[in-house]
Structure to design on (130 residues):
């Protein structure tokens, strides 16, 4: 069973919900009516946090699960928590100014990369030594 990875998956999905709600609140606060996604820089930063998170989910989630299956559930979950922490840092930095998003972005990209490379390496090792 992959309980730790499942829990981190639920946390990542909850974070996606949170960013979606933040966009809704920002639309109301800044008067940006759907389907518009421009018109206020503060709104646009909140919107980009949500969109960037959604752009990374198809990279993060399969990598997380493949790492858990082929290497380790607890290690995958720990790296997944680092990914979520990076996303939170990205959000808090970006909410202040666009140029403050880099550290969080780098942390989450590194975590996703470790998950993907680890999974890929383990899959290739299994194919060779299977």
């Amino acid at each position: 069973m992959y309980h730790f990875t499942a829990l981190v998956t639920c946390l990542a999905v909850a974070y996606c919900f949170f960013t979606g709600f933040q966009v809704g609140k920002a639309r109301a606060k800044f008067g940006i009516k759907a389907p518009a996604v421009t018109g206020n820089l503060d709104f646009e930063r909140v919107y980009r946090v949500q969109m960037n998170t959604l752009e990374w989910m198809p990279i993060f989630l399969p990598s997380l699960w493949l790492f858990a299956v082929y290497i380790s559930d607890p290690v995958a979950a720990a790296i997944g928590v680092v990914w979520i922490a990076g996303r939170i840092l990205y959000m808090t930095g970006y909410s202040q100014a666009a140029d403050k998003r880099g550290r969080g972005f780098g942390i989450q990209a590194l975590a996703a990369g470790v998950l993907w490379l680890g999974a890929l390496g383990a899959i290739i090792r299994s194919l060779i030594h299977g």
Remarks:
- The two ends are 22 Å apart (CA to CA).
- Residues 41-70 form the longest helix (30 residues).
